[in-house]
């Protein structure tokens, strides 16, 4: 996947996230905020290079499971 393709996919995911219903519970708001941060990370940025996306994915998965 090229940098342009990655950034395009991130933007598409962010737009889809923002079009959803507003989160109601604190857990839903936390997941929403983490996903918003995750989809805002661009290819080549410091957060991208430091592996923050993988960390966010793990935390989001844990929150969605209910741990």
What do you see in this structure?
The protein has helices at residues 3-19, 26-40, 46-50, 52-65. With 67 residues, it is mostly helical. It has one domain (3-65). It is globular. The termini are far apart. The model has no long low-confidence stretch (mean pLDDT 96).
Q: What fraction of residues sit in β-strands?
A: under 5%
Number of helices: 4
N/C terminus separation: 32 Å
Helix content bin = over 70%
What is the approximate shape? globular
* Gyration radius over CA: 13 Å
Structural class by helix and strand composition: mainly alpha
Total number of β-strand segments?
A: 0
* H and E string: HHHH
Number of domains: 1
Keywords:
67 residues; globular
Short summary of the structure?
With 67 residues, the protein is mainly α. It is 76% helix and 0% strand.
Question: Any chance you could write out the topology, listing elements then pairs?
Answer:
Blueprint: H1 3-19, H2 26-40, H3 46-50, H4 52-65
